[in-house]
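Quick entry, no commentary yet.
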Amino acid sequence: MFGQRLGLALVAAALVTSGSFVVDAQRVDGKQLNDMHAEMVQAVNAERAKAKLPPLCYNAKLNKAAQDHSQDQANSKSMSHQGSTGSSLEDRMKQVGFKWSTLAENVAAGQKSVADVMKSWMNSTDHRDNILGEHKFFGMGHALASSDTYGIYWTQNFGSADGESCEGGSNESGVQPTQAPYPKPTNPAPQPQPQPQPQPQPQPQPQPQPQPQPQPQPTLAPQPKPDQRPVSPGTRAPTSKNHKKCQST
């Protein structure tokens, strides 16, 4: 179910300034207005971060509706969710072409700084619920009224809508908070040049010296010994008496 929630109007009974940007009730130039816009979305997203909610981003249509309503209140010197012509919040969304699926609005008067008005809203249950609602986009309005009881009129618009984008071109699914400026690049420190590392010199490996291998000694074949055969003694001629001859057989 798509819904709308209107925060109760807030009037500052006492004005307590803080360290945030303080509005000069007589004049706000373009730079001051830009500073206030940056401070406001940062303050809203800081509260959402505490509640673990995604950040919101500015939407051009919600910004226009919020600014027109703040100026209308300043002109009529009357703080209300209803415009001087009787317009409702839905009427103002239709005028800027914001086809909302969720919608909410906070108004306040008299606070001199973003910090003061945010403190007032966060101390009110209905306004706090709007700031922490399930929305994607955000718009802010601020207008001054001279010779007026309050002097300053604030408006916050919250909403979601198909086909809408963040101011600056982001698509609706990529809602991003206002980003802090990127730090300027610094000159990179000189990198040390690699020093040639000494390469180990190959050490000559000792070459094995050939060792004399024992040569086999030739085995001398045994020389045959002369056969010592018995030799028969010569026969001697008899010198005296006849003897029989002896002959070995």
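second:
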Amino acid sequence: MSDTKETGTPPASNATPQTTAPSDANNPAVPGWNTAINGQPPQPGQDGNNANAEAQSVLASLANGQDPLAQLQSAAAGLAAAGGTSENIDHTFIDLTGNTNTVGTTGTGFTPSVGPTATHSTFTPISTAPVNASFTPAPAPPVTLTFNNIGLTNHSEPVLQGTGSPGLTVTVSEANGTVLGSAVVAANGSWSLTPTQPLPQGASTLIASSSNNAGQSTQSTAIVTVDTIPPLAPVVHITQHDDGAGSAAISQTDLVNGAVRATVQLDASDLQQQGAANITITEGGHPTTLTVHSDGSITGLASGIQASYANGLVTLSIQPASSGTLLQIAATQTDAAGNVSSPASDQGLVSTAPPAAPQITIEDHGGIIASGDIHNQQVSVQVALNNPSLQAGTTLTLTSNTGEAYSHVLTAADLQNGSLALNVPAAANGQSLTLSAQFTDSIGNPSATSTLTATVDTTPPATPSVSITEHSGQQIASGDVANGQVQATVSLDASNLANGGNAQVSISDGGAISSVTVHSDGSVSSSNPAVTASYANGVLSLGIPEPANGQAVSVSATQSNALGNTSLAGTTSGTLNLTAPSAPTVAITEHSGQQIASGDVAHGQVQATVSLDASNLANGGNAQVSISDGG
């Protein structure tokens, strides 16, 4: 390729051609090349570097696909002087390729030759005829273009970039021809642009194209995968109880080997595709963050925390802090594109302090359940409720060795009363009754178990023996009465009496009721001063005021032991009968005047009859006959 450069003023007719070479003869664009013009140093306004600058301009035109002929034709036309004389055709030629340049003139012509090492020559043509310059331009440099792959992104309008030929325009479009934007390649060969509309979800093939004025063009493609959809939010669950007040609490029964159990459900598919999840465990304000990786491994574990992953489920085991500590678990999941799910969380108050153990008592006598402690075959059990650790909603569980079980949920009224009474079936006589009681609060924390045992002893003392001094037929005759008192005795178990027992005697005397008590020390007390009583060696002697003739006297006695077991009653009664039978009728066989004649005597005996009350005899009566015979 050849080029021309018009410089300076036509030289004198005797000027001789001169050639000056730069330090790099093959590079016309070497900076600082200062070439003499017409063999003279540059004048003001003239600079041999102007030739170099214009050569640079030509190169730029070629690089950008522009036609440099206009400049070459202008330079060639300048060889002819304005007036057609040879004085105005002094020119400087620059060999841009290092090859011989040939310039022909009409008429005389000349062929200056510049060797490969010379790039600047000055000459004077020998003819004023117009000069015709001919050359063949070098082909334009190829258009270069690269398009960087973005791969996976969570931006629907990601920045697209690459490299190309400086000054050229790069246009990016989708495969369907939709233009996404254009950019001019910077001087450093880079370009970038932001799409004018969002890219669709999923993988897209984008096409970048660039061309120059010479008609050269090129394309480059890149694949962009857009994913702006976050994973599903995890599901966090702590094993705990509803405390009955609308809050959650972690009780003893929620623990496994002393540790809190929790799970975090993740999107297994997203995790496997280069995703991750973050789980933050906060105890009492102290956070620990675990990371679940796409291969299922978990990092970030701290002392007291264990975690495992399988099939999308993270299982956590957390040694809790002291009761009253708030445990919080929060989790998010991130996919390979960087999309973060909505957060999920759960929390619970560690509440593992149990209620106090129950205080239970049985209505008994020092561990012995007597007959007086049993009502309708049941024993009364008292449970104290005055412990401040007890709350409404706490459940009392009571079981017995007889197979009975009771459950009662405490109310505010129960707590206000301070105790709770329950009736439990009694065991058989001579058997033990064992009770076990436990409190469980509303979230499942159990108290220690309280146990109480008592033995059933309902065996009574022997039945007292009671007697009244009287005649057969329970008739109290006048002879049975002494000093105006009916006499009676009560035989008691002296041993039972001495071991804390007592005896109760009830007396009915013609309708008047009196009572006598024999105490364990042998002392006697009477409700009626008219009734006399004394005790000695197991026998109680009684003097009961004589009732009216025909009225009954009854005595009933029971004996109780120290447990309160009472014997059966010993009783007796009698009726005061002071009425004599009808007088017998006595007759002697005799004559008037109470004269017994010989005829009145039979077989040597005086004959006599006594008429008696046969009914009286039949009811236990008798008759007494006294005979006086001759003195």
